[in-house]
TrEMBL record:
<dbReference type="InterPro" id="IPR003560">
    <property type="entry name" value="DHB_DH"/>
</dbReference>
<dbReference type="InterPro" id="IPR051911">
    <property type="entry name" value="SDR_oxidoreductase"/>
</dbReference>
<protein>
    <submittedName>
        <fullName>NAD(P)-binding protein</fullName>
    </submittedName>
</protein>
<comment type="similarity">
    <text>Belongs to the short-chain dehydrogenases/reductases (SDR) family.</text>
</comment>
<keyword id="KW-0560">Oxidoreductase</keyword>
<keyword id="KW-0521">NADP</keyword>
<dbReference type="GO" id="GO:0019290">
    <property type="term" value="P:siderophore biosynthetic process"/>
</dbReference>
<dbReference type="InterPro" id="IPR020904">
    <property type="entry name" value="Sc_DH/Rdtase_CS"/>
</dbReference>
<dbReference type="GO" id="GO:0008667">
    <property type="term" value="F:2,3-dihydro-2,3-dihydroxybenzoate dehydrogenase activity"/>
</dbReference>
<dbReference type="InterPro" id="IPR036291">
    <property type="entry name" value="NAD(P)-bd_dom_sf"/>
</dbReference>
<dbReference type="Pfam" id="PF00106">
    <property type="entry name" value="adh_short"/>
</dbReference>
<dbReference type="InterPro" id="IPR002347">
    <property type="entry name" value="SDR_fam"/>
</dbReference>
Amino acid sequence: MTSQTPVWFITAASSGFGKYIALEALSRGHKVIASARSTSRIQDLAEKGADTVVLDVTSPLPEIKKVAKEANDKYGHITHLVNAAGYILAGAVEETSPQEDYDTFNTNVFGALNVSKAFLPYIRATEGEKTISNFGSIASWSGGPGYGLYCGTKWAISGISESMRAELEPFGIKVTVIEPGYFRTGFLNAGARVNSEQRIKAYDDTLVGQVRAGLDATDNNQPGDVIKGSKVIVDILTHSGKAEGKDIPERVALGSDSPPYIKGKLERTEALLKEWNAITTDTDHK
């Protein structure tokens, strides 16, 4: 890492991981530029010493580029970009509307893409090691009834992040995708979770209905502590604390439930490949 003061730009810093990563970085004496759709939502971060800016990640790219330039001009460099904006769209695929589908991809995927595009010229120009962190989820690994669109966005983020890592490694930029399990944030609160406007009764007695009820029961009862999780993230991205001496990984399986969930998907996939290998691989020209 370079000896210059780390400068963080964080999207969706009004709550959840965005907020607590900002607080953790500030507690270490780092500079933080926190963004949200309204600065009134991040006034508490301003009181802790963060610079605050308005940013809606679904804005047109030229508008995001203006924010990126102003952020870089503030301290002359950006060392850490955190794309934390995202939400869950709950509903069966048949239930969610095309507009709802687009809106969730627009925030969860296109938002992260455009913010990265806007900031990359400045991050590439920054000396030393830099990082870009994109938020995936354990839902990056396995689809599920009642939240298929959310899974789709998080699969996309993980795939894009892996690709960006290979593309940006020559510039000293480490890209990682953070894949948390269930953490006790406001993510599932009524004001944050988006439910499909259409609700088809036929799904009520299926797994979709069970998931709807499960999300309600899980809200505010998740096992993960977002403050502890954010400390681990900052440790990893700065090679400090518990992560001292370690490289920044391609993905961060965050939370006690994340590695077992991922391992389960790997095991199911390996079993599937073994079962069908003799049939599905006999397809080459002879």
